[in-house]
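Translate structure to sequence.
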């Protein structure tokens, strides 16, 4: 088992000149570099972009629906990486309510898990195929108030890694924490990010 080194890359507008920041979280087998390449298709021209890099290119070893202890200590370490990065962004001069999050697959699960454990007003969040982490959704873990933060969750049905029922449960939790959540389900879509989803993210989350 492993913990993560605190490594990330930056792109986009330098923080001192940026009006907002975007944390981009790669999926299993991916890299910070390849998730950042997606920024070219998003309306994030004036944002400072931060992308953390998972040790071994994986945030945690097993399925996001495995018992949580099986994914430790990697999962706690991954959440800490995101938390430290959010603090770094604040130190760089960008307030919390101007921080956005985006993740794909394992990165989408980590995005939703981090923001739901630390619910507050963020700029917005995009989860391309993900749900809350654990064998079951344990409500006690999720606290705070999103204060209307817009969140887009897009997924395929069926998806080989992320069951729709878990996605729906996750959306319910976030709505109860006062997030403004849009769930978009694409029938028969493969495990990937489509142009339709990118367009929707631009329209609902990055329309600033």
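Result:
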């Amino acid at each position: 088992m492993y913990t993560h080194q605190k490594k990330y890359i930056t792109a986009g507008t330098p923080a001192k000149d940026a009006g907002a920041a975007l944390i981009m979280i790669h999926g299993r087998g991916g890299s910070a570099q390849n998730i950042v390449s997606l920024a070219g298709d998003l309306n994030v021209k004036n944002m400072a972009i931060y992308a953390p890099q998972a040790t071994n290119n994986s945030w945690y070893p097993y399925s996001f629906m495995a018992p949580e202890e099986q994914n430790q200590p990697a999962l706690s370490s991954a959440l800490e990486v995101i938390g430290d990065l959010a603090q770094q962004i604040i130190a760089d001069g960008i307030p919390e309510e101007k921080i956005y999050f985006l993740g794909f697959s394992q990165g989408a699960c980590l995005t939703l898990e981090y923001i739901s454990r630390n619910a507050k007003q963020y700029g917005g969040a995009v989860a391309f195929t993900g749900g809350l982490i654990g064998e079951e959704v344990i409500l006690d873990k999720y606290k705070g108030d999103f204060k209307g933060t817009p969140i887009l969750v897009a997924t395929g049905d069926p998806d080989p890694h992320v069951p729709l029922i878990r996605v729906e449960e996750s959306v319910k939790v976030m709505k109860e924490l006062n997030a403004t959540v849009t769930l978009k389900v694409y029938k028969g879509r493969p495990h990937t990010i489509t142009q339709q989803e990118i367009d929707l993210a631009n329209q609902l989350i990055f329309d600033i």
